[in-house]
Design brief:
It is a single chain. Helices cover 72% and strands 0% of the residues. The chain contains seven helices and no strands. It is elongated. Helix 5 packs antiparallel against helix 7. Keywords: Membrane, Transmembrane, Transmembrane helix.
Length: 183
């Protein structure tokens, strides 16, 4: 009976710890994420969807804007998973590369901009807690992670361009490199 009681106490303790963590998030990170989301939606409403669309179309023209600027702006303004919708403004050829860069950016920027990927915020919070326990600044790590991530996301997007070209050639498929949006 002792083992069953200990198991039941441990089982309930798991949920009690989860509830305490949840409540701590409700008084700390959740309001921050909520306000960031409101701010981004307000900014998009203020700028207008037409201007945001125009930014995306212009960004599609070269690899730097396509894999650095567009992923940053779309993740910052729209968050995950909505940031992937900006690929609709890209030619078919560049969509796989944009997806590669965007998917990585939603992870690597989470420490600085938690509203981008709140569904995976627990990963960053776990890392940040360990860094804080070591007496280090978690924001410094978040900024470094984001900067390295931006560079690697750009490289990943551009390499995917070459991979897409190789697969297209191998499969005898031709994907358009011209923007053709019917909004």
């Amino acid at each position: 009976m002792h083992y069953i009681t200990k198991f039941a106490e441990g089982f309930m303790g798991l949920f009690q710890t989860g509830a305490q963590t949840f409540i701590s998030w409700m008084t700390s990170i959740v309001p921050v994420v909520l306000l960031l989301m409101v701010a981004m939606n307000t900014l998009i409403a203020f700028l207008g969807e037409e201007r945001v669309t125009k930014i995306a179309r212009v960004s599609a023209k070269n690899p730097f804007t396509r894999y650095l600027v567009l992923p940053f702006l779309s993740a910052f303004m729209l968050g995950n998973p909505m940031s992937f919708t900006m690929a609709r403004f890209l030619p078919e050829f560049y969509k796989p590369s944009y997806y590669a860069a965007q998917a990585q950016f939603c992870h690597t920027s989470n420490g600085v901009f938690p509203h981008i990927n709140p569904g995976e915020l627990f990963v960053w919070l776990g890392i940040a807690q360990g860094i804080t326990k070591l007496g280090l600044n978690s924001m410094e790590l978040a900024i470094r992670y984001m900067l390295v991530g931006i560079l690697m996301n750009f490289i990943g997007g551009w390499v995917t361009d070459f991979t897409t070209a190789y697969v297209c050639k191998q499969q005898g498929v031709e994907l358009s490199k011209k923007v053709n949006v019917h909004a």
